[in-house]
């Protein structure tokens, strides 16, 4: 993960197929983000092919312990993928 050209962390995710409707594939995705002061987790349903998903921040460690909020991921599965994280606290 990079911010203003500088590496600030790393991420990893997995998605499990939860529904098939013709070519429409729905998945349940879990994402972990490691940052210098701790980690954040997020989860959401995602329809394969859509380029934006809004995920619920489901917790964290370190400075992010007990975190809630929303993580928006744009340009999914492209070299331009970005995250915008808004925490409630």
Fold and architecture overview:
With 89 residues, this protein is mainly beta. It has strands at residues 2-3, 6-7, 10-21, 24-35, 38-47, 52-60, 69-74, 82-87. Strands 3-4-5-6-7-8 form a six-stranded antiparallel beta sheet, with no helix packed on it. It has a two-stranded antiparallel sheet with strand order 1-2.
Average pLDDT number: 93
Q: Which percent bin holds the helix content?
A: under 10%
Q: Rough shape? A: globular
Question: What series of H and E elements makes up the topology?
Answer: EEEEEEEE
Q: What share of residues are in beta strands?
A: over 45%
In short:
This protein has 89 residues and is mostly beta strands.
Notable traits:
89 residues, mainly beta, 6-stranded antiparallel β-sheet, two-stranded antiparallel sheet, globular
Topology of this protein?
Layout: E1 2-3, E2 6-7, E3 10-21, E4 24-35, E5 38-47, E6 52-60, E7 69-74, E8 82-87
Antiparallel strand pairs: 1-2, 3-4, 4-5, 5-6, 6-7, 7-8
